[in-house]
């Protein structure tokens, strides 16, 4: 996890909400300048104490923080769910590949359909259903099945049903013990629970009444801010409006951006493509059978530079890949 330096993030626009709120920010700042100009032109005073307005600002800031926290909770819950998808996909694949049939076609199909589940999940959550939108699925399950997926009512359920059919085939043929079948079914059910949790987040946005009231409150606060401070701030009124509006508008936009952690249009959306590609790579690498285990005391240690006279003889990389080992080379 790479973190940028302080000055880099201070001036960084990529991943920042500043471009999204810049227009609103300039509008409120310009309004503050107009209010100052009017008060100067007509020699007006408001006679208001700014302390009362500061109390209102504190209340507004707390409301915005609550909204931001609510959005972050959704983002973090979605990330935890996808962590579960990673774990359950690996567990489900390992059960079938280790304890299931040794037939290479079955193993290949099984691993590919388990991997296809996470890929269909990220397409489904982003509203990508058409064949040209899910065309990369051809690399996992083939073109014909990708066409079927594009026509399925619910792509993740189609993929996980294929996994169930393969497990059923293995257990009915006697090539998968029923105990391991039940363990695999438990992991498969958890995957279904995970996509249900993601869909709950996606289809249950934060209450619109809450958002409307906060934004209305924010608008009124920033509209009356220059009127409240113009006597005390004078010609600095537009600058103070800018400095107050920027964090408030940014917090409001951050809450919006965090509300949907799956959409690519949102800042800091979850990297679902990378996560599903990682799952696919892990599972495809698990298809091949492992070589027999080499006893721990049979593997010679590499020669060290600190004590060359006492170190055991070394072997080449090709020698380490084979067992039993050849006779040690002369040092």
TrEMBL record:
Main location: membrane
Organism listed in the record: Bremerella alba
GO CC list: plasma membrane
Keyword field: Cell membrane, Ion transport, Membrane, Transmembrane, Transmembrane helix, Transport
InterPro entries according to UniProt: YneE/VCCN1/2-like (IPR044669)
Protein name (Swiss-Prot/TrEMBL): Bestrophin, RFP-TM, chloride channel
GO molecular function, one term: chloride channel activity
Membrane topology listed for this record: Multi-pass membrane protein
């Amino acid at each position: 996890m790479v973190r940028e330096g302080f000055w880099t993030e201070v001036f960084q626009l990529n991943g920042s909400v500043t471009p999204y709120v810049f227009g609103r920010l300039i509008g409120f700042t310009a309004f503050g300048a107009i209010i100052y100009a009017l008060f100067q032109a007509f020699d007006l005073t408001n006679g208001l104490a700014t302390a009362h307005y500061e109390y209102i600002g504190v209340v507004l800031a707390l409301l915005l923080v609550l909204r931001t926290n609510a959005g972050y909770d959704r983002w973090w819950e979605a990330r935890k769910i996808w962590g579960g998808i990673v774990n359950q996909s690996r567990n489900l694949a390992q059960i079938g590949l280790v304890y299931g049939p040794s037939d290479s076609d079955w193993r290949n199909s099984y691993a590919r359909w388990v991997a296809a589940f996470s890929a269909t999940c990220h397409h489904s959550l982003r509203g990508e259903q058409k064949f040209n939108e899910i065309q990369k699925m051809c690399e996992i399950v083939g073109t014909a099945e990708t066409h079927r997926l594009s026509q399925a009512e619910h792509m993740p359920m189609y993929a996980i049903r294929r996994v169930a059919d393969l497990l059923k085939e293995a257990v009915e043929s006697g090539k998968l013990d029923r105990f391991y079948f039940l363990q695999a079914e438990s992991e498969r059910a958890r995957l279904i629970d995970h996509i249900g949790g993601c869909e709950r987040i996606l289809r249950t946005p934060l209450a619109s009444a809450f958002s409307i009231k906060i934004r209305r409150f924010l608008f009124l606060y920033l509209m009356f801010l220059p009127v409240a401070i113009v006597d005390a701030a004078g010609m600095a009124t537009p600058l103070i409006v800018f400095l107050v509006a920027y964090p408030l508008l940014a917090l409001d936009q951050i809450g919006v951006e965090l509300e949907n952690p799956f959409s690519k249009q949102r800042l800091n959306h979850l990297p679902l493509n990378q996560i599903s590609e990682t799952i696919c790579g892990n599972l495809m690498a698990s298809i091949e059978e492992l070589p027999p285990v080499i006893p721990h005391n049979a593997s010679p240690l590499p020669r060290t530079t600190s004590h060359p006279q006492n170190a055991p003889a070394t072997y080449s990389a090709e020698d380490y890949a084979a067992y039993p080992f050849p006779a040690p080379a002369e040092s």
